[in-house]
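Escalation from tier 1.

The customer reports that the assembly of two entities below gives different structure tokens on two consecutive runs. Tier 1 could not reproduce it. I'm attaching the input and our single run for tier 2 to review.
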Amino acid sequence: MNKLTDPILSRVQTKKIPSNSFVRSWTLGSSQAKIAARYFSYSVRKHFVEDEKRKDLFSHFQLQSALQLLGTMGYLRGAIMKIGQFLGNLPQILPHELVEIFESLQFEAPPMHYAFIREMFLDELGQEPEEVFATFEKNAFAAASLGQVHRATLHNGQEVAVKIQYPNIAETIEADMRTLGLLLQTMRFKKDFNYMVNHVQDARSVFLSEVDYLAEAAFMEKNRRLFKGSRIVVPRLYPEFTTKRILTMEYLPGQHLQSFLATDPPLSRRNHFAELISYSLVHSWFCLRTIYADLHPGNFVLMQDGRLGFIDFGCYRQFDEERWKFQVDSELAMFREDRDSLNYYLTKLAMHKTPADLDPEWVDLFLRQIHWVIAPVLAAGPFDFAKTEYVKQGADLLIESLVKGHVRTDPFYNWSNRALLGHRSLMYRLRCKFDYSSLYLTEMKHFS
Amino acid sequence: MRITQEAKEKTKKTILEVAEKLFAERGFEQTTTRDISAASGIAKGTLFNYFKSKETLAMTLVNGAMESGRKQYERRKTGEEGLVEELFLFVASELRALKPFRKYIGPVLESCMSVFSKKSICPAGEEAKHNHLKTVGQILANHGFEMEYDSIVITLYWSLYLGILAHWSNDDTHNQAETLGLIDYSMQTFANTISANSGVEQAVSNE
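Tier 1 run:
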């Protein structure tokens, strides 16, 4: 953890999670104001310093802004923190210092103290942690946006990881979404306003479904069955110690991506884990017709024996029959470069009546994005995910699409985009080069 | 006929048990002193020999629950808690014991513990407040703070505590989770204030 963030973490730890919309808007607003003030100070000062110093000044501004944002997000947690995590998935476009800080959110959110945990246990399981378990570590060993994770031992000696949700998180997310809704109201006269609202409502429903650990537990079990016998390990669930707000699962020993990369592993080992991460994503995509929308480093444990622990199943979307058919058929059209069929699918995706209604600028950008996404599949043989040109192209496309802000699409595909970006980001961080095409096409052939 | 102390205690106990049952079944507002005395098998006037009002009767129940919460806290504390954590543990243990009274604790506290109700002293309310603050004083002393019972710091604590109770009585979140956050925040605020005043930095630490 960056030492610079420590005072902020300890400060935000002292604050109650505000679930009231007004308080949350105010907190965010004041945070933005501070960042804006800092930027103003930088803009004035930059005119009076040399080039090199100017760069340092800008880095300093960015870092301070990130810290400010981190403080705010640690305080607000909930959906805002999820957005922070999402940004952490984009090392291509964010300066390195910011990515490291955002990444820390995935593991180092402000913790609840042990007396707090004991109350949660009494409310959820009717017993104190030390009554439920043979041993229970008072300090969390991992924390995320919605909860924190403690190590414990069952009375039969099995080591487990116990995920405990922050109190009142559903209300917090609701308050975030209401705030976002209020902010959106200022744009209500824009022509695509209703589509924008659809996206927010969709995000709301997905984030809210994430607060139900029983649903996550059921999906984890489904994945455990799916990956049984493979090199992907999905932890065993302990339903007797699991509720909507406490999830008890087998503890998987290993490293997270950041500590793994800190050991400077050879390419073969990086490729090995990159292939396993890709397999986990692609296999479930085709086999369960599921998107893991929260594909960030904190969801994987890189185990000493070469297996990959897949440990978080909170944020996912399931294709229905109609969407699945659309996905498979449009993917085939992409591979065939069948422009007529693609126009048909794009018309459906943008909810237009005829291809003539399509915005040519959006179509052009969308097709360029598709080409970027399928480049590793179309490559003959190993694909270099760390290739500067590929990474830069992806970052440019993302910025272009953010700037243009097309919202007239089915919000469901936000999650597949998020998963794909998360995947490419992980591959980039692993600096891997392997035959992704064979992996993808084999799975596609088997299950489509 | 002279009524023995033992008989008095027995009648008082019966009234309390009956009242608790009726409050739970019908609600505090819907239960009258007439209902309680009838169900206790005593005349309405006799009830007032024991309790001045329905509120003071309920406050006696609340006082008993607070005492039971203090015992729970004593049993649960490990000695490893920091100041904020220990205060949190104390207040949370007490609220857990008070849970059966949550729905009607508002009017009871308003009449028996409110900072504005000084005209008629409610002995049960005074006793509850005294015992609660005595425990807080002990916790503070354990962490290096010596506070007088009537100091401004204790007044600050009491205001925060009443705020917690008021919020908790209307907290509709699952298991009153929002109140847990509020207790933590309030105790942290309190610890920050007293440590800033006294210069004892370690007090705010949860370690």
